[in-house]
């Protein structure tokens, strides 16, 4: 055996992709070694070279009378084109794989790979029941022929479809079993990377945040064992940054996102990761009050093909532009199909439409979010649902209901170890306590929230509950206007008529004013305004 070929195979076995690729480039490769060479190109983010090598392997297998190996190459070529959004060449290669299968007599493992193309078609058409049936057939085929990659791909897809169908416990068990296979090293490199990234992305989509945290740690270890891998590293960095953001390590999250260097722009996965990274950076910047930088990040995310909502709408709300925020969030919610896909949008929708005074829309969104939470085994969606209910109850002047819902949200966020969201729940608890006349408890809750916001660097939240002395005390321009009219003794109806607002919006502004000033009545707010020269 020639030295370069032997060296390339040894480096491949050690996941030393760079040296394996260099050695294979110098060697005379047969069809099987061309497949290994293709995999090294994939792991280095060289997608065009990956497809080219697979095409060479496909032709070599056909010439050698090995049509089933040629079929597998055709499938992976089609998969690569599909993933890059090139539907026509993808369908062409999938059709070639199907034609090769039709020539075979009897049952073969490769039938499972052709079934994957059927499953992907059902997925794109939203046919979840049909997708589940085909996925189960793929698993059975893989098990019958001892093809671990096929079993993992089918089981992952079956788990995803069951969760989307509302059978979360069954689906999540399959997802966890699939991840056992990948963490045990049972899968080929490309399939392992696909399973890692798809599973973590899916768990993020359905708000299985504990699983996101645990599997991201496993993905990080897998990437660390392959220091010169490129293909999945950008995705790993984004997932790590998301986990850090949730846990309150915002500075560390920005560092991770900053590691998406020029090298990590190679490969289709890393191209997708760039858009996600820009959005995640925008989220951290917004929470820290760096609004100009957040705006830039959201715009960059949009240019990279990543929808910048709901973060961009929440930025407009933080900038004191509730009408613009409402237009943004209503647009994206209207474009998003009902059910689980809207779970990521509805909490922001409730917050924004409440600020705009549309209590009916907020109530409808709260009901929908509650229905999603009831179908999904997700602590995070449950927490979001309770938090939205607490905010709505405050807007409806029902402090008892607000207190119950907000405390449940706080406990749920505590369990998830999400300090920022937990602190926001405590602000709602404080507002409910103030409306109930329990000023001491209100002060305690606000102090606890303030400590968390300060530690995180959440400047807008700090300023909203602990303004500097002699300043506007965290009040917006509109809140200053409302407070001045309150100090003149006008009713909510009179204020609404003067400022061309709804009474619900005036009530909402009053609740915010009471919280920011640490008071619990109109009389106390009026006295504060006169004492601090705000009226």
Automatic annotation (TrEMBL):
Chain segments annotated as transmembrane: none
Keywords: DNA-binding, Transcription, Transcription regulation
CDD domains membership: LuxR_C_like (cd06170)
Domain of life: Bacteria
Span of domain HTH luxR-type: 468-533
InterPro entries: Sig_transdc_resp-reg_C-effctor (IPR016032), TPR-like_helical_dom_sf (IPR011990), Tscrpt_reg_LuxR_C (IPR000792), WH-like_DNA-bd_sf (IPR036388)
SUPFAM superfamilies for the chain: C-terminal effector domain of the bipartite response regulators, TPR-like
Protein name: LuxR C-terminal-related transcriptional regulator
Organism: Lentzea roselyniae
